Every structure is written in structure tokens, then in C-alpha cells.
Amino acid sequence: MESTKAFYDLQEALVQSGCPLCRLRKERAEQYLDNLLWENVNDPGIRQAIRKALGFCREHTHMAISHPGAALGLALIARDVWENILQTSETDPHTAPSPRWRRSAVSAERVLTRLAPQAECPVCIHTQEMEDLYLDVLLEGLTGDAPLLAAYEASDGLCLIHFRRALARARDGEALAALIRVQHAAGQRLVEELDEFIRKNDYRFRDEGWGRERDVWQRALLALVGNT
Ligand SMILES: [Zn+2]
Ligand SMILES: [Zn+2]
């Protein structure tokens, strides 16, 4: 994906609620799975990558399962992975322990080693690359004319996971200063809303009715771990 498309994606995500990077991460993962299941399910390279990873990670397995119309593609993938698992865990007659050594720890270790994933979940690999691009475009958009600064200031900010990843990628002093300032302000807003939520739970103020702080306890916790 080129930077221009990433820039427009970010612009759109920044006006939505929650961490824009989490939102885009989810969108890219859904899109990747869509392409995979509709077009590339028989691609030998992708099939091998999935085999080596022993399927998808937990998050992306759940995403794939709830993907519409995915049953046949996922059945082919699952069969492939399971066939591979059965082959690798098959007892080798030359190295099989004798009955006397049935409980041999060495043998268990062999199977364990063979069953260890040899690669990361392919959806994770893809979304990680996309996240890096989005973070770079965001940081770039906070310097010079700073075309993304106003939208970023008005947004909910990044979750803590993506804030830390952005910090690790920030190379420019101006972008770094803007990043920290906006995130600090977003964190401060959360604390103020939490205070308001807690205050309104006092019976003396119950009649005041809820405002934006209604669901802040959820947003504040999700901002620590990100939205999946
Ligand atoms: Zn996030
Ligand atoms: Zn994954």
C-alpha cells in the first residue's frame, strides 16, 4: 500500500472513536483474510506460510471463523495444517522409545520441538507491516505543514500499545513533541471523564444524567490494551 492511501485511511480513522491504529489494524486484517479466502486459498506460498505457523493466531482465527462465506476455504486450510501436524507427530519407528522407556522425556521433547510453530501468523505479519506504514505516515503528518495534526488533536488518541510503537518509530523531534503532547491531553481527558463518572455515581448527583463519560470506564481500559 502506498503512503497516499495510508494517509487517507488515517484521516478517516482519526474522526472515528477509539484508537485509529487499532481500527485500521482490524480493517487490514479483515481485508487480508477476505483476499486470502476468496482468491488465494490455493496459493502454495500462502498455504505453506499458514502450515508453518500452525494456522492463525487466536485473534485472527476468531476473525476468520466469523468471516462470511469462509467455511470451504477454512476447511481446506485447516485440513492442510492438521495433516502436517499428524505427519510431524507421527512416531518414527527407528527412534521410538522401547516400551521400557515409554515415559522417556527425550521423546516428548522431540515431539514438542516438531510441533513448535516455525513462523508467525501470516495475518499478524501483514497487519504489523501495515501498522508500521500507518505510524510512519502519522508521524510524518505531524511535521512541517502538519496535515494530520488537527485531526489527531481532535481524536481519542492512540491506545497505549500504539503510542509506545509510535514512540519507538519517531525519528523527528517535532513529530515526537506533538505525539507526546496529544497523547498526554487524551490521557488527561480520560482521567477527567473518569472523575466525572465516579462523581455522578454518588447518590447526591444521580439526577444530573449521563454525558460523554457514560462509557469512559470501558474506553479508559481499552485505551491501555487496544481494541481488537
Ligand atoms: Zn491501538
Ligand atoms: Zn494473527
Describe the structure.
Helix content is about 65%, strand content about 0%. By secondary structure, the chain is mostly helical. The chain has one domain (about 5-225). It binds zinc ion (ZN) (2 copies). One zinc ion binds near residues 19, 21, 162 and 226.
Strand and helix layout:
Blueprint: H1 3-14, H2 20-38, H3 44-52, H4 58-65, H5 71-88, H6 105-114, H7 122-140, H8 149-154, H9 160-169, H10 173-200, H11 216-225
Helix pairs in contact: 1-2, 1-7, 2-7, 3-5, 7-9, 10-11
List keywords for this structure.
65% helix; mainly alpha; 228 residues; binds zinc ion; globular
What is the helix fraction of residues, given as a range? 55-70%
Bound molecules: zinc ion
Integer-rounded radius of gyration: 24 Å
Shape: globular
First-last Cα distance: 22 Å
Strand content: under 5%
Q: Structural class, judged by helices and strands? A: mainly alpha
Low-confidence stretches: none
Q: What is the oligomeric state here? A: single chain
Question: How many distinct helices?
Answer: 11
> What is the N-to-C order of secondary-structure elements (H for helix, E for strand)?
HHHHHHHHHHH
